[in-house]
């Protein structure tokens, strides 16, 4: 937390969580009796309005009753996050001081405790146990003293994820403080004053139902989370060197716990200090593969965010634990309660990122606009009735009543019904939506990011073969590793893994299991008995198939399981009867290469790696090292650090793995691309492998080019960026450039016009993001494949796409994708693990075929929302126009007329808009994202004008009848006017527009199915049309009297009014459906959109790139500019010919490439070729012509 000067107004200002996503400014306040008295007097004088404002802005009442002060004497603090949400927290003071002798002052925010540090003059978040090195954990092996336990318990509290159920009355008050509900309370009170109880009761009942459902769902979700996260069990704790069994709620950071051998659930985050464990962390990551946990080293610096291999996380299942030396498996409690990783997940669910969607902002803004529009109508009403001599009380009531016309009273209930219907349809498709408001967001998605492994491709990898290396030279590939004699590659397959035995069954990563089974070795975990040939009892031993015939057993002393941050795993082994210890390392080829002696790395390392990667195969590299002869068992198993163990490595070869696409991946990507929804891959795999998968699934077309972006930092400040082609337009990325001698002739087309995509790894993305924001926006816009991405860089990619104006969706399998799933506008988890509750959507099918379904439902919901909003706005203002027309001479519609229009005619249609099913296809053009767009405004205004014109026609038609009787105003009967022919004509005309609106504003193709497919809605519309026709033509006497209509002397009068209504129907339908929705929407608006220029940030960047003749800057960023006579197409062919001269002296117009039947394990040298941009050659030819 940092401190800033606050000038004269405030003495100081502070921040907490500086440098993190949850950084917030802090203001401290102390209760003031003078301010409190003045504040409450103001509340009373303002009729309690400040209390409603307080529900929206927490700081209002705080500033009324408190004064600024220094934090160490504060009673309350005010926090404001980056989403402009305010938190008022009470400051507490403990009875006992801290260990440094200072007062114990703290507050809690979002389930995190912040403690005031006097020496630092700031509040500090209380996280886990504070240690300087990993040796501190081993020093705690005897446990805490009773005095330390009491202090830690006072500081950290109970080890529980307790979620308090908010009282129902608080939830109700929170719901009804929303502006829409406040408005509904207002209109109900006004209508009850006028004794218009029928519609008042309807609105009241719907509001009660809506609030009840909302409160019920909130409590249900809270209860479900509470029951899910609550866990308590007995644990064995060592305190003062004595073991005892306690409730897990009593654990405090620093406690030493004994990890039982049998399966159990961890109740805290703990650092393993002895023995090893195998854990199922699917609750946190969605990864079903068990994970090995090893004890923390005594000599290593400890970083909690990196050393996850040593942490037993709260909520994960410990499948098995063991110790080879017959000692107990121990762990030191590191974090408890909401500080644990599980607690962070729960906090992210309880305090999610707010949904920022223009639709909801527009709805609130439109409410304010409508209220302002109602002011002239209220003035008009007051002037008219004052001119007519009405009583003041009646004028006031009538003027206030006008305010109830301008905002749709059913809006909250309608939006709830639309979202609920879409949520129900998604559930039928096997997609569970935890936040119904996110469905609308899916309707406007521009980009969808996908993880690769487990999302686009299958979870499991198959071992295709191995490629040994001897003396720095790669040998022939071996498809079946069991055919190899015992060699370093076989030893690596047998030992470099994190496999365990649980109930005599081998568990671990599926890849490790398949690799181990491919060589037919066996795994043994000795327990309490010696294994011949070893100095001590090793944790586990692997035996070759011929172990009884002279084969040598190998002990695995130490394991460093695979971690995504380090991109490798390693083991320390010892062969039976040998005094030497070896280290084997397996991981990403680029990482392993940099750790090996250069002379052991084959010269064709890169070409071979790229060759297999282009085939979509995944490659792992293997390296080894023999430790010095004086290395002891203790040093190898405990004392040497990982850095010391992984020095001076020798490259041993490649493991070639195959990952197949999931069923439905290609078809889903095609659907999205055809709908102009940009698809992006963000994976932790190799770049060329990712590009190959992108081509296979259709993200990158055969006619597209792929440009690799590589960045490096010079002198720690200068960013150097290189661009080179990894795939040519019109050619497969799997073709071997520069080599012939194959089956087919493939002609290279003239490279003049093409679509290109950028591809890069996570390192390049991070460097550009940090050092060149302008370039970041360009590569994010054109980027298609992002490889070697860590969890936090995936999140940064989603945020970068959002910053340039895209509406972003993210689809992942839950492993390493949680951050990106939370950051996206719409996150879709393919994992049903508990971690998926952090994502708005969870698919049971486990493949990406659900994504188009979610987008289709989102578009249908969005279109239904806009349609219902236009319907309700027109309903309000058309009725208002009719009423104002009658007000001119003092007439008013009767209560029965209001009941007929409000309930019989206009109540059901908007409530049923959400029942329209989504259209079968996704078109390129999404629905409008804003209700304030030009066509929506034109549609509403033109509809109201057309209806007003027909009201005028009906008025003039009625007053020109020879038997018409003028209305005589009676101020004593202002609310119960006598029936007149003019009122009958105007209100008859006013009934039909609500039926018309139910037809013309109903969404249809290409977002929802046609209206005729919805039988329920069709029945309602037909019923309302018949009811309106009946009332206009010849209603029963009691109905005529109820709605205060007057029967004309001639039946032809009613027929003419009915014909005007039908003419109104025809004109309104033709205008809205054919002119606005078809002609303007499909013809004029696209043309105008092309002329208007870019609006969104990404459109502006696209325009800049199209005008930049030097983009993309092919070759090195600091290379010399090309000669004016340079033609990139000719240079491309010349370059290719020069590179092929050693093999073939001449080159024909077509080039030969390997056929599809060549075995994937064959190796080809693949020289890298850098080309200039093809687009420049097209411009040159145009200029020459």
TrEMBL record:
Pfam families for this protein: Cation_ATPase, E1-E2_ATPase, P5-ATPase
Top-level taxon: Eukaryota
InterPro entries attached to this UniProt entry: ATPase_P-typ_cyto_dom_N, ATPase_P-typ_P_site, ATPase_P-typ_TM_dom_sf, ATPase_P-typ_transduc_dom_A_sf, ATPase_P-type_domA, HAD-like_sf, HAD_sf, P-type_TPase_V
GO cellular component, as recorded: membrane
Domain P-type ATPase A: 233-349
Top EC class, one word: translocase
Family the UniProt entry places it in: Belongs to the cation transport ATPase (P-type) (TC 3.A.3) family. Type V subfamily.
Record-given protein name: Cation-transporting ATPase
Originating species: Ornithodoros erraticus (European soft tick)
